[in-house]
Amino acid sequence: MNEDIFNMELRKFLKKVGVTSQREIEQAVREALDSGALKGNEKLQVKATLTIQGLPMTHDIDGEISLN
Which member of 1, 10, 38, 68 has the greatest number of CB atoms within 10 A? Predict the structure, then answer.
């Protein structure tokens, strides 16, 4: 395995995850605010699950996003 290529590919993937996730979360929150499902003062419990096809790996990342 080429460590440099692996590291670059991993960083590319993680950047894509971060950018895409942020966009999706922002859109979902805006829609929920517009529909009245959220008031804008909530703390949202979030969870991301990472899996790799072909590997016996699952990793959960829990967090909280405060809207106020």
Answer: 38
**Do residues 31 and 12 lie in contact, with contact meaning Cβ atoms separated by under 8 Å?**
no
Mean pLDDT of the chain: 97
Label each residue of the chain as H, E or C.
CCHHHHHHHHHHHHHHHHHHHHHHHHHHHHHHHHHCCCCCCCEEEEEEEEECCCCCCEEEEEEEEECC
Cα separation, 15 vs 4, in Å, equals 17
pLDDT digits (tens, 9 = 90+) for 45-57: 999 999 999 999 9
**Could you tell me the residue range of the domain that residue 9 belongs to?**
3-66
